Amino acid sequence: MKNEILKLLNRNARYTVEELATMLDMNVNDIKAEIKRLEKDGVICGYKTVIDWEKLDGAYVSAIIEINVVPKADCGFEEVAEKISSYDEVESVYLMSGGYDLNVVVKGKTLQDVARFVARELAPMDSVTSTATHFVLRRYKELDVKLCENEVDDRGQILL
User: Fold this and answer.
1) Which of these, 113, 137, 150, 154, has the minimum number of CB atoms within 10 Å of its CB?
2) Which residues span the domain enclosing 83?
3) Do residues 60 and 89 both lie within one domain?
4) Is the CB of residue 62 less than 8 Å from the CB of residue 91?
5) What is the largest CA-CA distance in the chain?
6) Measured between alpha carbons, how far is residue 89 from residues 48, 114, 120, 139 in Å?
7) Same-domain check for residues 77 and 106
């Protein structure tokens, strides 16, 4: 039951308890109790709206920052990840395997805002040894929601 509820809420967090109960052929009170338990246990950490910012005049720029870090003996990557997570510009922080340690998604109003944030806040941190910034040019899918479904991206086409 838990996984089915989570899959449906992941698809659309606005489903009502009644809708979930109907879709899963379950009792409304059982659904309410399970959702409350999942929230209490920290399995459900919040509910978000997926917004296609490109469709608004006040669009913002986002970037993926690869960060290499020297982990501290007593707390590993936790301290620097927690500090990075505290900035308003930061949307996500992930510990990675492979060529770099932390993957950080940041947002700003302009490319310069993001570059300034990386240069002034992230790069100078004690544990940070290097950063690589990749600006997001277009979002096609975010948090399991397709964006730009009917739009054609013709930037890669060669006109003869």
Assistant:
1) 150
2) 53-138
3) yes
4) yes
5) 63
6) 17, 8, 13, 18
7) yes
